[in-house]
Amino acid sequence: MPVLHLDVKHETLADLEALLSTRLKYLQVCKSARGVSAQFNLMYATWKVGMKSILLLCSYFSVLLVFAFAVEGHNVGAVFAEEPLTCKVAPLPKIPDGKVGEASPAFTWQALAGCTDYQFYLSNAEAILSITWVSAEEAGCVGGSGNCRFTPDRIFEEGDYGWWIRGWQPQQGTSKWSSGTRFTVDLDICAKVPEIVAPIDTAQSGTPAYQWQGVYGCEWYQLVVSGPDGNVLREWVKGDDIACVFNTVCSYAPEVVLPPGRYFWWIRGWSRGTRIGLWTAATAFTITE
User: Fold this and answer.
1) CA-CA 20 to 30 A from 88: which of 37, 111, 198, 217?
2) Residue 34: what pLDDT?
3) For the residues of 241-278, what is the DSSP string, one character each?
4) How is 56-98 classified by DSSP, letter by letter?
5) SS3 category, 41
6) The pLDDT value given to residue 14
7) Are 182 and 161 in contact (CB under 8 A)?
8) Which H helix or E strand runs over 112?
9) DSSP of 142-201, one letter per residue?
């Protein structure tokens, strides 16, 4: 393995041990295997006088270096092994972001390999609301892949908030903070009952178009139609697929053909924030042909 020659004046194990005992924070490396001068942050040190050996764990930018020192006479050398460091970059926040329609949202971010804990920071325009440590185990992301998830023990009032997240690993400390992610709690999102437009009372065709007023914040709608023999239709309709937006008439015509008879239908909305809205009252209509 490559040998690093250290620019230290301590040429005996006792001298080097005394140097470390002063909690030296940095070792200046005059020339590394890369041929450049660099400064190594001392993270951990242990030594055994009887074996005349010292082990140092240092961080050098994004590389983990393990130094094993051997003292023979007046020569002090070092060999090192390289291993990629993790938990250095800022985590990527996911949600909440933008408008949120629930009072106790879950916070998710992309996991970082190597992080054992995360620090969660929450504030509004007036104050810091929370600085909390969350273990990777608690957040369900021990393996360092996928998303971490954390739900604070708090009820959010309507208003504007911001949150940040950073990782931590015992060997190298904390990562960079994520960028601030802003969100607004608006408890009216998809909370209202849709207003039925048609059909009401009578429908001339066996394939009627179901129409309702779009509700603010709803992304999907669930349509249920019931006839003499029970439910004949139960279907989720994506708002984007039918150009259904707030305060417009949304229209959906399924391919199910209804025979003549009397029917009832219901509609309700859904959003990622509020989850699921309230059903409309049952609305009756009759197929005449």
Assistant:
1) 37
2) 33
3) GGT--TTSEEEE--SPPPPSEEEEEEEEEEETTTEE-P
4) EEEEETTEEEEEEEEEETTEEEEEEEEEE--S-SPP-EEES-E
5) strand
6) 53
7) yes
8) none
9) TTS-SEEEE--S-PPPSEEEEEEEEEEETTTEE-PPPPPEEEEE-TTTT-SPPEEEE--E
- pLDDT of 150 reads 95
Please, which residues have CB within 8 angstroms of residue 246's CB and are 6 or more apart in sequence? 214, 215, 216, 217
Going from the C-alpha of 80 to that of each of 1, 160, 175, the distances in angstroms are 7, 50, 24
Q: Which residue has the tokens 């020659």?
A: 5
State the sign of the Cα–Cα–Cα–Cα dihedral 149, 153, 155, 157. negative
Per-residue confidence (pLDDT) for residue 274, from 0 to 100: 62
Residues of the chain with pLDDT under 50: 1-13, 16, 20-85
Q: Which secondary structure element, helix H or strand E, spans residue 18, and what is its range? A: helix 13-21
Q: What is the DSSP letter of 282?
A: P
**Domains recognised in the chain with CATH numbers:** 3-84 (no CATH), 93-185 (2.70.50.50), 195-287 (2.60.40.10)
pLDDT score of 13: 46
Cβ within 8 Å of residue 110, ≥6 positions away: 91, 92, 94, 146, 147, 148
In whole angstroms, give the CA distance from residue 176 to residue 186: 30
Contact 163/122 with Cβ under 8 angstroms? yes
CB 130 within 8 A of CB 152: yes
Cβ-based neighbours of 143, under 8 Å, separated by 6 or more? 111
The whole-number pLDDT of residue 271 equals 86
Q: What is the pLDDT of residue 273?
A: 63
Its pTM stands at: 0.47
Residues 6+ apart with CB under 8 A from 72: 52
CA 266 to chain centre: 35
pLDDT confidence of residue 5: 35
